[in-house]
Design a protein that fits this description.
The protein has about 100 residues and is α+β, with helices and mostly antiparallel strands. Helices cover about 30% and strands about 20% of the residues. The strands form two sheets. The protein has a three-stranded antiparallel beta sheet with strand order 1-5-4, covered by helices on one side. A two-stranded antiparallel sheet has the order 2-3.
Length: about 100
């Protein structure tokens, strides 16, 4: 590959909403009350698998072609600059306003 780019999924797990019917499963109690998560926090069982599944759904058509992902890192790989611009276009569209360059 001629060009490689690395992107970090900053707070990536916190970008995934927990289904309303499952939020009670994340409940915890403090002196100030009982709370539950509305977004997926780090540390819960299976968050890695859930995040990976979301990445596959979003990027299924470019994973293992011009993109690889591992945990919260994304590697863009291209043989030409033109191909690399496709990786950036797809990545930036998927990230929307949350993407910071």
């Amino acid at each position: 590959y001629e060009i490689l780019s690395l992107m970090d999924g900053f707070s990536c797990y916190n970008q995934i909403k927990i289904a309303d019917e499952d939020q009670h499963k994340t409940a915890f109690t403090t002196p100030w009350g009982t709370f539950c998560y509305q977004i997926m926090p780090f540390g819960l069982k299976n968050v890695g698998e859930t995040y990976q599944r979301v990445m596959i759904v979003i990027f299924h058509y470019i994973i293992h072609d011009i993109m690889e992902d591992y945990v919260d890192d994304i590697l863009g790989k291209s043989k030409t600059r033109e191909d690399h611009s496709i990786f950036y276009d797809v990545s930036l569209i998927a990230c929307g306003k949350k993407c910071v360059l």
